[in-house]
Each structure stands twice: as structure tokens, then as C-alpha cells.
């Protein structure tokens, strides 16, 4: 059996206000051609399919158009997708009855039976190979919110609740499988020891207590297809427990590595190989600086001029980082003037005050830190400090994180 492992598509994402639809369209057409060429049996999408719980219509069209096209060109392909922390679990499941006819399975929630046991059946998806025989089972573990795995019969420890769901599902899969059938887990989770990307992976829950141990996935699981971390990596050096990363760079901190999907081959239960397939980058993300303004302006002047014959959608996204000694009220104007006629699209200017002995919070008083440079948590900490003259304690920050999560989920309620 052969699988393609993908995750963190983040359809509908904005880069500081700029749409990424063109890049997503390029990725999906590349993926369709890879599927046509390589004919894997299964395509896995390990969560964060959409960037927000209420994705734009265009992003939803992209997904469903892709699923139909993939099915038309390869009717034997099985697609399994789970919700990530950016997705609405119920929205992902909404078209499930339609998609099942296309051999696409969408899992966004866990359900409980009347006697309080996990409804494991719906999370176990048979994976037929090219001959139509069941070659393996997919254990679908959508991202779970605290309310889904805590409560009367589960207790109030969130991580333990998640651990329980994993254990029950693995036990159910072991009972169900026949010898020679592989177990493939797909999960959207932060595993202990993973390396995170700055500013693009929204923290899963609260504080540091959110990482799951890799030991959850015992040796009966042939391969674990993970989503959430945007950089491709093995967990604890294990070949079979992997993040494939996002298909496009979702922030300027993600430009230093090759985005990829993973091509996974199994022989019965045995993992044979995991090979990256590199995704061509449709649009470059380019960073200039951090450097003093004069130097930055020189570098901007050296950028290539617009080629009127080239596709403007392929112009790089540009982030400019300027080191300043004092506020520069016409900073944006100077940079925009230098960029006239240049083949780049400016998305962000970051001002940094170096070596002046000034503290960062004085900068906001000058209005020079833009709101989107701060995480909600940082903004809250600063506001607290300003109002009360002391740092917010851990409990307050955790309460804030819970409130924030509620607000972020609000769009999900019918
Ligand atoms: Mn993500």
C-alpha cells in the first residue's frame, strides 16, 4: 500500500491581508498531477485544511473541486481528512455523506456511545489497495477541544482525555484488523520534542502543558501521519512518526526549508520507505533586513524591475525589516517610493529599535509596532502591564487563553 501524507493546507489563508489563493491553486494542481503519475492508494490530510473556522467560499470551492477532480482521475483513491485546531470540526463533517460517495472521509469530531464509550467505529476507515482488498485501517484522530474529551466519565485533565481517546481507538483497531493489515494513524497534535515555527501555528491549548508523548503510538501502528507543526520532521527521530509540514510557507519564518508531502510505502504491516516529494514554490517570500534604513533603501533599489510580460500573481511577497534609532514618521512612504516599479509585493514593514537603550514598550507609544506584529497574548500582557503596573500571572494568562479560544471558535456555532 502506498500513501501520500499532507497536512496544514490552510486554504483561505491571508498573509498580512494578502490572499494566498493563487499559491493554493498551484499546489493543488501540482498535487493532482502527482496523484495521476504515482497512483498512491490513499491521500491523507492531517488537519488545518482551512485557515479559519469560517473559511471564504473560494477556499471551500478549492477543496471540493480538488476532491472531485482527484476522484474523477483516480476512482480508486481513498482520501482521509481530519479537522485541525484551525478548522471547525462540524463544518469539515458537513458534506461527509456526499464525500463518502467519492471515497473521501472527513472526520471532525469524536462521538460517544450511550454507555459512555468512545464511538470508535466511525473513526476507523478501511483502506483498500489497488486490488480492492483491505490493506490497512486508518485511525482518524481529529483535533479535540477540551470540552470533547473532559467531563463526567473522562475527568478534567485534557491531555489525559486525549490520551484515552488514542488508547481506545488503537485498542479497537487492533481488535478489528486482520493479520497483515497495517494500522495508519492520522492526528493533528503537538508531539513532545517537535520544533515549532514562529507566528503561524496557533497554540493548541494553554501554556506548555499541550505536548503529547510519542509513546501513545505503540509499535502496532505502522505509520503516524501528523499535522500541526509546519516544518517537516520526524518525532524523536522515529521514521514512522512524522510531520510532513505545510505545502506553502504560511509566514516569513517558514521560508528556510523545502515544503513537501511524504510518499509512504508499506508492505503489509511493514513500513518500507518514506520519501519527501518537494513542492515547487509558486510565489517566493522574500525578506530584506533587518538593517538601517539607508541600507534597506539601497537593497530595495537593487530589486529587479517589473517584467510586464510576467504573471503579476508570481511576484514575491516582501517583508522589510528596518533598524531605527528614532521614530521615522515617513518610513512607509520612503519604502513605498523605493519600491515603485519593482517586481515585489510589499506585505509588511517591521521597525526594530537597536542599541538605543529604549525599551520595546515605548515603541508602541509611538505607534510604530503594528497590531499584527503582536500575538493576542502579547497584546494582552502589554495592556495588563500598562493598566496594573505588574506582569499578568500564569493563571490570568491561562484564563485569557481560554477566553481567546472561545472567541476564535465563536464563528463555529450555528
Ligand atoms: Mn497548522
Keywords summarizing the entry:
24% strand; binds manganese (II) ion; 414 residues; 3 domains; alpha/beta; 6-stranded mixed β-sheet
Write up what this structure looks like.
The protein is an alpha/beta fold and 414 residues long. The protein has three domains: 2-278, Metallo-dependent phosphatases (Purple Acid Phosphatase, chain A, domain 2, 4-Layer Sandwich), CATH 3.60.21; 285-373, no CATH class; 376-412. It has helices at 21-38, 57-73, 89-93, 96-100, 146-149, 158-176, 293-301, 331-338, 360-365, 376-388, 394-409, and strands spanning 2-6, 14-15, 18-19, 42-45, 78-82, 104-107, 124-128, 134-141, 182-188, 223-227, 233-235, 238-243, 260-267, 270-278, 285-292, 317-324, 345-353. A six-stranded mixed beta sheet has the order 6-5-4-1-13-14. A six-stranded mixed beta sheet has the order 7-8-9-10-12-11, covered by helices on one side. The chain has a three-stranded parallel beta sheet with strand order 15-16-17, with helices on one face. Helix 2 (57-73) links the parallel strand 4 (42-45) and strand 5 (78-82). Bound molecules: manganese (II) ion.
Provide the succession of SSEs: EEEHEHEHHEEEHHEEEEEEEHEHEHHH
* Bound molecule kinds, no repeats: manganese (II) ion
- For the terminal residues, how far apart are their CA atoms? 40 Å
Structural class: alpha/beta
Main sheet: strands, sense, barrel? 6 strands, mixed
Number of strands: 17
Q: State Rg.
A: 23 Å
- How many domains in all? 3
